[in-house]
Amino acid sequence: VLMGIVIHRSLEILLTCFREHGCDSSADPSAVAALQELGGYSQLIATSIDEVLSDLRSNPRVTDRINFLSTSLRARVPELRHDVQAIVSRINFKSGDSHDGSNRGEHLRERLLPGSYVEIELHANELRIMGRIDLLTIKDGECEIRDFKSGDVEAGHAEQLRFYALIWT
Fold first, then answer.
1. ∠ CA 162-120-66 to the nearest 5 degrees?
2. 136: enclosing H helix or E strand
């Protein structure tokens, strides 16, 4: 579970940085500058591990295992780096001028213009439901909803995307 959280956090940081640099994909020439700013993939993973473990330090059920978890996660940096790179290589990202990309935890109320948005929280107040989309891309009058998964494909994954589409609608 923690590996999935680290991968997810790394993607959030990287895609936000790509957006800030106007990158459309990892093949975009400006992606190199974005990755250099983050210290490369290994440093990105290390930063994400630090953030995830920092969040856990206040949890009394985990505090006695933090050192073990840290050692275990750091030993898997090559595997985590590979997984993040594989996901990023399949993403076409649409940079745009509609928002600065630093939307983590914010409640955006303005109309979203064409572009890609990381970690967008949606609310359907009348249905009393909400969800957080990992990557939302708006272009040509359509939207694409992506949810990043690090494990095996499960039937519930498609259901989750349909749920997000319902909230978006």
1. 100
2. strand 129-139
Cβ-based burial of 35 (10 A; exposed 0-12, middle 13-18, buried ≥19)? buried
Q: What is the pTM for the complete model shown?
A: 0.79
Contact yes or no for 110/143 (Cβ under 8 A): no
Q: What is the pLDDT of residues 35-57, one digit of tens each?
A: 999 999 999 999 999 999 999 99
Helices (H), 22-169: 30-38, 40-56, 66-75, 77-89, 155-168
Q: What is the DSSP letter of 61?
A: T
Number of CB atoms found within 10 A of residue 17's CB: 19
> What is the per-residue pLDDT across 3-33, written as a single tens digit (0 to 9) for each?
999 999 999 999 889 988 888 888 888 999 9
